[in-house]
């Protein structure tokens, strides 16, 4: 193990000396000098105040999409002005359009960008080429903000700022006020920031930027212009509170329950660079429902994060993919073993399937030398299962999840505007004789001088402390890719030993692998023929088991992606896989089932969202050669824009897999498989009516049905060679492997942002879930059965109010 890590470290040090050099790209970046003003303009979207007349103009925008550097036409010129006071930065954008009737003005709520014209203001207060904040305002007045790292935008990030728009016969106009309390910047007399302005003209399908971006090399954040002239500003006390109160009424199967709760989130700027975020007595009752499916595979079902605290400002903590936030508040570690603790004449009367979060905090920031530091901590409470003796009536409890502490610490040093090295540690400590976990990762991401090559790597060490033993594991990744020009290529190696396990706070489905990957691609950066953009890629991999060293499978494939000048996107892929040894489907260590070679084909389309009716659709087909095993997946999602305020999106999904040899049961000496057919249908509807950009009525509905049917008498046992042999397996009502699953979720909500940072949400939720072994039921019959089950009805109201220390202080002064 140490020798492998030493080799990894030597390769990294050599790569740093080879690749870390200052980057110029051969382009001269633009400069802009902001002007200090005494009297702040009124933020109303009407740029007619005298204060703007003395502020210089940033102009001469050039195209980034679909073309490459073409100057903006005079009919669609753009002018931007920046001023500042002791409290905030002010931005005025004049977005001229000689045909204002064509300006797209669809309404949407905050951080949702519809098919509308919009203006973008990017600001990097440390001028490090990597981390910057994006502020967006649409022609309808919708606001959005995001943290950017390279090409990635995190719209889970939210700060309080203002923006307004107006429109006349010359075009549309935007004004922004961004208070210093929403920014982090160095404690210096003179600030040297970098910035970028962008404009999307949707009816022309064109995007323009102020500082030219060469799409063929590097990242967009490397091409900012300099923002100068800002000096003698002081960071205010960055202290804000988000107190909330919520009430909930629930009805299920004739029983009523009500709950009233209150709590608070707060943010505190420790200094000019670092911020503390904390949630006290959190309430996640109104988070979106999970898209649960029937899962008969060997791996747990995973879901996206819907809790705002765990999505906002977490870019440091997600490095190395060691943080899966759904672990916090997840199912108790002893939940599935509770029934095994039953004694004679006992029944299980309570077994919580979720762990309650007591509180959580995170501290993060970056110094002016480029060092990012992050600290995260969360605490969950004790959960217990309760048993009752059916004869004596006495009850007892066992702990299924003890008091637990979750912790992450990150150091991330950036250099040369585009490269970084990182150290991250995650730790989970559970009170008492329970499982603990600790993982440490060392990462690097380095570009060479011309940004034509990128070299990345990871080395991660896991330690799991179990009551009976301690396990140490190791995993690594090495990747080198060409990142310049139309023709690109790369190779990658991934390794993990058999004891690598990060599942206390991270997520890994498999270990014990030694895999090799390669890819090569060709793409265009300017319109060619009927295409605005297209990419062709060839790829392959060779998968091996590490211990013992054994071939698993090899794959070869190709893919295509294209967008026409009419904004019609389409593509697809084809893949061939050799015989595959699946070491996870048998559910027993060092055993595998062998699946034959297979061929996979897919195709997809996405039509022009600017039109009133558009559609996304995908068709997939997977055929296992020489057998009757195949699978078809189909999805279609038509969308209908009723008007600029009302949008409906319907989605339909169908999946049918037949003749799959699947795991059924473990016996003392045998692993039983069966021939399974599995069919699924999914219907969902998303609808939003926007009364304004600050309040909307939203509908979210989903129904998922699935059935798994094993052929009668067609069972087999798994041999040591990975082959299957006919086996006489007796099916009873207790071990019937057939499954039938149906779930219904409906959310109807009204959201009103009644003040900056403050909101009220009224939510009605209706849900039904049913799981049994009636796999012979058809979809319509299943729906009839579903509605015979008791439904859970929930009505909740949540109000959050934003309080800023500086506003409170000024009011008292007044």
Based on the model shown, name its key terms.
single chain, 814 residues, mainly beta, Immunoglobulin-like, 9-stranded mixed beta sheet, 3 helices, 54% strand, globular
Structure commentary:
This protein has a domain at 34-231: Sandwich (Immunoglobulin-like), CATH 2.60.40.1190. 4% of the residues lie in helices and 54% in strands. The strands form five sheets. It has a 24-stranded antiparallel beta barrel. Strands 1, 3, 6, 7, 8, 9, 12, 13 and 14 form a nine-stranded mixed β-sheet that branches.
Report the major sheet.
Answer: 24 strands, antiparallel, barrel
Q: Say what the CATH topology of one domain is.
A: Immunoglobulin-like
Q: Briefly, what CATH class of one domain?
A: Mainly Beta
Topology, number of strands: 45
Distance between the termini: 66 Å
Instruction: Determine the fraction of residues in helical runs and give it as a percent range.
Output: under 10%
Return residue spans where pLDDT drops below 50 for at least 5 consecutive residues. Answer: 5-26
Secondary structural class:
mainly beta
By DSSP (H or I, 4+ residues per run), the number of helices equals 3
CATH architecture of one domain: Sandwich
Give the rounded overall mean pLDDT: 91
Beta-strand portion reads over 45%
Q: What is Rg?
A: 29 Å
